[in-house]
Amino acid sequence: MRFFLFLFVAIFLPFWGCKPPQKKKVDPIVQGVKGLVTVLSGNQMPRIGAPPAVPQPYPTTVFFYEPTDITRTLQWNQGPLFTNIYTKLIATVDTDSTGAFTAKLPVGTYSVFVQAGQQFYANSFDIRNNINLVIVDKGKLTEMNIVVNYTSTN
Fold first, then answer.
1. In the chain, at which end, N or C, are there fewer CB atoms within 10 A of the end residue's CB?
2. What phi and psi values does residue 93 have, to the nearest 5 degrees?
3. 3-class DSSP state of 125
4. What is the pTM of this model?
5. pLDDT tens digit string along 41-88?
6. CA angle, corner 148, sides to 77 and 78, nearest 5?
7. What is the pLDDT confidence band of residue 6, given thresholds at 50, 70 and 90?
8. Number of other residues whose CB lies within 10 A of the CB of residue 75
């Protein structure tokens, strides 16, 4: 009798301790940066009777650095591509297949770069040569759309 009781407990005890898998509760991002990364390439000169080019989704990685000016980077061929950035990396986020991204960030100002091949891309500068700045306010999602166009001609 004890043997059957032992066998019963040994077989069914592991099932009593098992819980069904719990889904993690994902909090929505309410502070940071959201946006869309797209690409324009090829000839962008307007042509009579031809519709303007439509930017295409650009799946990539978006990098958020502390505010970075041009002197704290290694710029490639004096264009919008950079091989090294010498400021602190704060966050990275991958876009989805449509180029959309959302990054949770603390309040502050950031320089934003996107990965373009083995380099970083940014083409916006302020009057102090700070690169592609975005400001995150408390409790707000700042919208920032980026068009990667270093391969386009006009």
1. N
2. -150, 140
3. strand
4. 0.78
5. 766 666 787 777 778 899 999 999 999 999 999 988 878 999 999 999
6. 15
7. low
8. 17
